[in-house]
Amino acid sequence: MSWNVNQLLRKYLIMGSQNCPRDPEDILLEAIEGGITAFQFREKGDGALTGEQKIKLGLKLRQICREHSIPFFINDDSELIEELDADGIHVGQDDIPADLLRRQYPDKIIGLSVSSDAELEQSDLSAVDYVGAGPVFFTWTKDDVKPVVGVEWIEKLRARYPDLPIVGIGGINSDNAREVIEAGAQGVAVISAVTNSTAIKETIKDL
Ligand code: TZP
Ligand code: MG
């Protein structure tokens, strides 16, 4: 399957079991019904599954995405690319370098987090399909989160790279998503706004 990166970044749900107050499969299904355009399996942080349990949940969520033609990404864990037959992978600055991933997986979609000028300097953007920019707003969801960059960071990236696919992340919800898009991002990546919503379909429509 070949994907349109700009399009898939529009409403990008990220989640692992640690983010879910109820069955992750149900949350993903509702989110798909609501209209997400991509999913990233991010089993990470306090209470995250590991080993076989992680793979087992990953396989279930992967299958749901496949049945609904939603692109499935994994976070960081390049070993799971093949095991889960992911469509893509998202990595941070301290993970496996993007150029190495690109050589290993010429056909996968590769995303890279870029949160500062220093990170930009050390990044090979020619190896990636999109960048994640954030945290745009304050968030409780990630423990080792970097300083808030604001929508100004997205404006800066957009001015410097007119054609670079950008997804904003961090503290985004249906009240502030518009600012992220107006700053120049193709889309918004969200965790808690969706996983903690009591009306997931509406939340995603409102995004
Ligand atoms: N990377 C930067 S902020 C963040 C990640 C994974 C957490 C986003 O979670 P939320 O709940 O949408 O703020
Ligand atoms: Mg990482």
From TrEMBL:
GO terms for molecular function: magnesium ion binding; thiamine-phosphate diphosphorylase activity. Keywords: Magnesium, Metal-binding, Thiamine biosynthesis, Transferase. 2-[(2R,5Z)-2-carboxy-4-methylthiazol-5(2H)-ylidene]ethyl phosphate binds at residues 139-141, 171, 191-192. NCBIfam families: thiE. It comes from the Bacteria. It catalyses: 2-(2-carboxy-4-methylthiazol-5-yl)ethyl phosphate + 4-amino-2-methyl-5-(diphosphooxymethyl)pyrimidine + 2 H(+) = thiamine phosphate + CO2 + diphosphate; 4-methyl-5-(2-phosphooxyethyl)-thiazole + 4-amino-2-methyl-5-(diphosphooxymethyl)pyrimidine + H(+) = thiamine phosphate + diphosphate; 2-[(2R,5Z)-2-carboxy-4-methylthiazol-5(2H)-ylidene]ethyl phosphate + 4-amino-2-methyl-5-(diphosphooxymethyl)pyrimidine + 2 H(+) = thiamine phosphate + CO2 + diphosphate. Pfam families: TMP-TENI. GO terms for biological process: thiamine biosynthetic process; thiamine diphosphate biosynthetic process. Its EC number is 2.5.1.3. PANTHER family: THIAMINE-PHOSPHATE PYROPHOSPHORYLASE, THIAMINE-PHOSPHATE SYNTHASE. Belongs to the thiamine-phosphate synthase family. Pathway: Cofactor biosynthesis; thiamine diphosphate biosynthesis; thiamine phosphate from 4-amino-2-methyl-5-diphosphomethylpyrimidine and 4-methyl-5-(2-phosphoethyl)-thiazole: step 1/1. Residues 12-194 form the Thiamine phosphate synthase/TenI domain. It is an enzyme of class 2 (transferase). GO terms for cellular component: cytoplasm. This is Thiamine-phosphate synthase. 4-amino-2-methyl-5-(diphosphooxymethyl)pyrimidine binds at residues 40-44, 75, 113, 142. Binds 1 Mg(2+) ion per subunit. The gene is thiE. CDD domains: TMP_TenI (cd00564). The keyword Metal-binding applies. Condenses 4-methyl-5-(beta-hydroxyethyl)thiazole monophosphate (THZ-P) and 2-methyl-4-amino-5-hydroxymethyl pyrimidine pyrophosphate (HMP-PP) to form thiamine monophosphate (TMP). Its cofactor is Mg(2+). Mg(2+) binds at residues 76, 95.
